[in-house]
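Posting for a labmate who doesn't have an account.
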Amino acid sequence: MVLLDDEECIELMASVLADLARGAVWQPLRFVVRPPDESSLMGLMPAHRSEPTASYGLKVVCIFPSNAERGIDLHQGGVLLFDGETGALRALVDASAVTATRTAAVLPAFVAVGFAGGLAAAPILSLPVRVLEPTVRAIGMGIFFTLFYVHVVIGPWIGGALATMAGTSRVTFDLGAAMLVLCCAALWLFRRIAAKP
């Protein structure tokens, strides 16, 4: 049974990603259940969408490395959809099918954006290693990654707040473009400073 064709899924993902950017979707960080002395784990990924109709969603994925020996997928799970007014369960869908459909819908856009102007993450994340002495590298990397992840967390919040104030999600793309220009300028400045004896 097919619930969404590819075109409907692309439109739906565009709508949800725009809602996420402007703060109409609340998606906390995933929670991982990793029992001691177990190679398996469970990931819980909750979300709430306030419009057009309020709803809660929960993706639950169990990862069992031993499934490779059984010839089945290491990832097993489901996506639950709940009514946002009553909490009634509205749907339970195989997580693999949802993930495959979602990935197929958004992957071309992410690849195109990355090729068009995205900075590669690895060179940026390796910058501190290039300049920090071994004696201070651990604390320097800790400070760098703390600041990096603070920006990763607050960036979408700022984008959503700006989109809400402006009344359009286009402002989030403008923010992203400004951040990209700032990253290029910061990288140039970093290289100039690092080149000095």
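Reply:
Got it, the structure tokens are right above this. The first strand starts at residue 25 and ends at 26.
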